[in-house]
Design goal:
243 residues, mainly alpha, Tetracycline Repressor, domain 2
Length: 243
């Protein structure tokens, strides 16, 4: 019997090895808090030696964590990027589906990322997390079609981003209940309600909401909510002198 062929060893390039180590680290950080992950764990997960990890990340665990965090942050930012055509709520449903899927997949790591308190936390890691929040808010403003948002609209959008984060953490703490599709729909309703409340006293928001809701479909819970809110927005616009 001919013995099974043993796959030939292939030396990885510097970039390939770095990606391999980052993938291993991200997998570990996704399911365990940073404090609970050691360089030995990363080396074992990647099938390499601890000195090799140090060769690519001479700053040790801190450098590896910050680099992995930057990679995760890039993925989170991409969750909010989507086509800018079609009904607003349909676009936001896609955004939230991607975001909540990331939360679901990275559960413990996501909690550690947002809640802080890790020995690996530094001003740099804090800045990375804040950058994700700001980038998410900017993308939502783009979806609303607002190029130069005033302070009320910008604050409202950033408040919603904070609410999405808080709801995600509560969802994890509650054993991932309710189901993701229900959480997504509730968060969309939450944004629509915040927009309507802000539109009552802010002309720029009223214009953005009026344009967005006019494109919504008539069917489904969001369409019903939109129709209920349209008279409120129209009355706000009238009281503000037209938009």
């Amino acid at each position: 019997m001919t013995p099974a062929a043993i796959p030939a060893y292939r030396r990885l390039s510097v970039q390939e090895r770095r990606v391999q180590l980052l993938d291993a680290a991200l997998t570990l950080f996704a399911h365990r808090a940073p404090d609970e992950v050691s360089l030995d764990d990363v080396a074992e997960a990647a099938g390499v030696s601890r000195p090799l990890v140090y060769r690519y990340f001479p700053g040790g665990k801190q450098q590896l964590y910050e680099t992995a965090l930057r990679s995760a942050a890039d993925q989170l930012e991409l969750c909010f990027a989507a086509t800018h055509t079609g009904p607003l709520t349909v676009r936001l449903a896609g955004v939230l589906d991607r975001y909540l899927a990331f939360v679901d997949e990275h559960d413990a790591g996501f909690s550690a990322l947002l809640q802080g308190g890790s020995v690996a936390e530094t001003s740099r890691t804090g800045a990375i997390v804040d950058e994700v929040r700001r980038a998410a808010a900017e993308q939502i403003l783009v979806h609303l079609g607002v190029g130069a948002p005033g302070p009320r609209l910008r604050m409202m959008v950033r408040t919603w981003i904070a609410a999405v984060e808080a709801a995600s953490l509560i969802w994890l703490d509650e054993g991932k209940q309710p189901p993701l599709d229900e959480l997504r729909d509730w968060l969309i309703d939450h944004l629509v309600a915040l927009l309507a409340a802000t539109a009552a006293t802010d002309r720029q928001t009223a214009a953005a909401v009026r344009t967005a809701l006019a494109c919504e479909g008539p069917d489904g819970a969001v369409g019903v909510l939109a129709r209920r809110l349209l008279p409120v927005v129209d009355e706000a616009a009238r009281l503000l002198g037209g938009v």
